[in-house]
Records
---
Amino acid sequence: MQGYLAEKASQGVAYDLRNALFEKIERLGFGYYDRQETGQLVTRLTSDVEQIRTFAGSGVVQLASAAIMLLGTTVLLLFLDLQLALVALATVPAIFVLLLRFVQRIGPLFRGVQQALGRLNTVLQEDLSGVKTIRAYAREDYETDRYREVNDDLLGRNLETVRTFANNFPFVFFVANLGTLGIVLFGGLRVIGGTLTVGELIAFNTYLGFLLFPILTIGFLSAAFSRAGASAARVFEILDAPIEVEDKPDAVALPPVRCRVEFDGVRFRYPGDEREVLKGVSFCVEPGQTAAILGTTGSGKSTLVNLLPRFYDVTGGAVRLDGHDVRDVTLSSLRSQVGIVLQETLLFSGTVRDNIAYGRPDATLDEVEAAARAARADEFVQGLPEGYGTVVGERGIGLSGGQRQRIAIARALLVDPRLLILDDSTSAVDAETEAAIQESLDRLMREEHRTVFVIAQRVSTVRDADLILVLDEGEIAARGTHEELVRTSELYNEILGSQLEPAPAGG
């Protein structure tokens, strides 16, 4: 019964920790992920939680049992013979000093083991995600060596913990045996002197074993405690991490917006970086307008659009929708009116319908199909073995890059956003498909009066934009329509000639 209840309790601890960790990870800001390795996070949710679970089960019960036995045996020894008890207990402080030094040394070692395991998981995760790139460049041997190097580090750290055990516990046993030797010597002299019987000495020595056993048990458990403590510290680093972007206590729901977007002296730098990515950016986009963002590499294009749904918070100035500062409204009400199609398309394991309806799980099949038609995805989806019920693999394996992007566009359109953000969202489709998608997007923008921000790589995307912003080193170097910038902006013409692709046929 004790074993069952202990295991049930430990599984409950692990269950609650996993839920709490995942819930926190879902809400941490993007700045946190910019500083953390995926492998380290996976290790904390798996291996570190398991170390805590193991100690929370058998370890806690054994520790409590050892403490009770130690206390009870001490009282019994003092009751039987005060002098012999004092001789026996004289070694106890020395044992606890040795154990304390052991715990202080082993704790950082266990933390290093978990960190090395996290690095190993990071390499594994990177290689599994990039297996095609590895094969394409024939880097299998290099990646094998890289994995072996991290694995060697993990092995070395584990062996160091083993050596720490080997270098400390023999001394603990030695001191414990000194206590037994003292009892036999001092008690034997008293037997010879006639003040103690042989039976009493044997009984006392037997009880002494009940004193040393819990001490040694506590010693062994101290290693498990140190390991669980190191894992707990890593787990609570996540649980105690501040959420950089969250609702204010007095945040209000954002009402349905016409979506007038205003950047007012916006400044931004990434957490831990002193370099400003955006430096006092100010502009205004009226409802229903399309704003194209262009700029040199590292000029802050993606950063600018990431501030609209509050993936990050500005470090100066303000971003407003219809006059509402995005920091003063709830995240759910803000993001429910924003549709985003990123350059790197992510699909989840599940059906095509589930992926398109990810933002609106209650959407009907007719609504899903309408969004797919608008994104020019309906035709190829209907050709799949089970149509919209076809299951796609992890990250959309089985679909081409262009097909994945069209599903992502359909997913964004289905939520009927008032603000649509396209981060080079047609980069993986051919020219004919890009022209068809662009035509549909243009029609949807005009008919629904959506405000659109687009980071583009093709001339056709920016030619018809109502406002083009040219960024350079975090500042707006030029703004205006295509015709105005062709006449007035040297930087725009350089980008036009060097970075943008020609307009597709029919675009």
Note: The mean pLDDT is 82.
---
Amino acid sequence: MKVDMQHRHIYIQAAEQISIQQPLSEQWMDEPIRYDDALVKAVNPAFRDYLAPNDVRRMGNLMKRALVATLKVLDETGVRHPDAIITGTSLGSLDYSERFLDAMVENGEQTLSPTYFMQSTHNTVGSTLSIYTKNNGYNTTYSHGALSFSLAMLDAWMQIRLGRISTALVGGFDEMVDNYYELLAKTGYVGVSGMVPCSEVTMSMLLNTDASADHLCELAGISISHRPDNDGLKLQVEKMLQEAGLSWTDLSAVMTGINGNDTNDEPYHQLVRELFPDLPHLHYKHIFGENHTSSALGIYAAAHCLKRGVIPQFMYAEPPASPCVSPRNILFVNVTNSRDYSFVLLKK
């Protein structure tokens, strides 16, 4: 059955982050915070400036971060009730999940507090955002490891292109606890010498069809493929560019998720060598750290670079032959386990 996908322009109207950089701020573009630690927790804003004291006391950090970032995005855009809320998280409310399991062991599964259980599921963030925004529309959560946020964006993209919705609140949320970090370090996923720190992520953005003067950039295309060969990757990018009315020469830069871990970085380096040898190569994890949903911060960073019309020097993976001046189009690439490739095309 053929699905009629309308050619509707989709814009990232606003995006906010709470990460290991200054929260709810673009100060990282001018004065990024540098870290030498292997594990760095997110820098929290003053939650009481945004939430009622009762909410601050009863919510975990992940929930408070997601709620504050989302409320700020909605306040900036003036959209009180988005048509859809779509979230991506690999680990969900990991801290409260751990606390609930610890309490089960310590109390012999007796007299357990319901608070930790109620906030321990992966879709808790999406449902709480729905309650606060009084949203009764489409609401779903993707929990597919490092591909979670890409799938959330793809869902929003398809819903808007199909004409089912006009606004979508899309978020990527993950936190880290010490015990799980130690497990990841044993597998070599994080904690490798020369690698960026393991971190936490909260990023909320609003997608809509309104080309206002304040939007960050246009979401011109998104594509995900499983185990593609080189020809398949090239065709994937060519199709995205063609649908957006662009060509290879229109690309200003390519942004990848290199993090200093050779296992993670090799697919990116190979992709850049074979498909984008002449394009400036950008990275972001040295600023925001590594976690399962860090791609959300990469897209956030690329969108703000396009809005500001400049790429900070520290975002170049290596000094380019000619720095990118007034970037127009950035191709964001996320590779998961060397087998799942997602491309997001952002257009000024």
Note: The chain has a mean pLDDT of 92.
